[in-house]
């Protein structure tokens, strides 16, 4: 893992456009810019197909199989991002903890209305979007929103050990929340507060 830490830090320092592949056979690679490297997780600002930065993805460094630089289109991508005032790609306004999964999810949930979790070892082709409502020792309870922007009636439990990737701040997640609206208060923790505007979300 140590060699990947140094490789990721070099990519972060030089604003390299990278493709991060993982040891999970069916897991999608992550393409974008490394914006932070922790003890166990790395945070990537995702470059989407329309050449804009579209949120953040965190993956465990231990799961990384390869970090490849995308050199051929680097100049074009940089020029495109400058046109959108997205260069250089920046980390979230507030610090996201990358030393372990539980503080990672806690810190992301404080800054963004929803997060997305992946359990690629079991279900590589689906993800689950929602609001973390309970942090247990072995599991997370997530109040999910479905693809039709409808909140589930009850939260669902996911084992920490099954979570292989965490996304937040993307346009789809943002739009889904805006259409769904804030869920009924009886489905939320008593201390839940709407995250601040600093991360591009509406009041």
Strand and helix map with partners:
Elements: H1 2-13, E1 17-22, E2 30-37, E3 41-47, E4 53-60, E5 64-69, H2 74-83, H3 101-111, E6 115-118, E7 128-135, E8 139-144, E9 156-159, E10 165-168, H4 171-180
Low-confidence blocks of residues = 197-203
* Mean of all residue-level pLDDT scores: 92
- Backbone CA Rg: 17 Å
- Which strand order do you get reading across the main beta sheet? 5-1-2-3-4-10-6-7-8-9
Task: Report the end-to-end length measured between terminal Cα atoms.
Answer: 40 Å
Please give the number of β-strands. Answer: 10
Give the overall silhouette.
globular
Give me the strand/helix succession: HEEEEEHHEEEEEH
User: How many strands, what sense, and barrel or not for the largest sheet?
Assistant: 10 strands, antiparallel
Figure out the total of helices. 4
Structural class: alpha+beta
Q: Helix proportion of residues, in percent? A: 10-25%
Tell me what portion of residues adopts beta-strand conformation. 25-35%
């Amino acid at each position: 893992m140590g060699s990947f830490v140094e490789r990721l830090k070099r990519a972060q320092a030089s604003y390299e456009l990278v493709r991060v592949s993982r040891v999970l056979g069916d897991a999608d690679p992550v393409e974008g810019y490394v914006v932070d490297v922790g003890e166990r997780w790395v945070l990537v600002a995702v470059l989407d197909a329309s050449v804009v930065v579209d949120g953040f993805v965190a993956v465990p460094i231990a799961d990384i199989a390869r970090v490849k630089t995308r050199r051929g289109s680097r100049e074009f991508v940089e020029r495109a991002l400058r046109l959108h005032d997205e260069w250089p790609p920046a980390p979230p306004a507030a610090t996201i903890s990358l030393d372990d999964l539980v503080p990672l999810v806690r810190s992301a949930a404080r800054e963004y209305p929803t997060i997305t979790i992946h359990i690629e070892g079991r279900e590589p082709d689906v993800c689950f979007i929602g609001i973390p409502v309970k942090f247990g020792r072995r599991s997370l309870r997530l109040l999910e929103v479905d693809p039709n922007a409808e909140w589930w009636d009850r939260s669902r439990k996911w084992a920490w050990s099954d979570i292989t990737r965490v996304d937040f701040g993307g346009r789809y997640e943002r739009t889904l929340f805006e259409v769904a609206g804030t869920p009924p208060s009886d489905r939320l923790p008593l201390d839940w507060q709407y995250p601040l505007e600093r991360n591009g979300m509406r009041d």
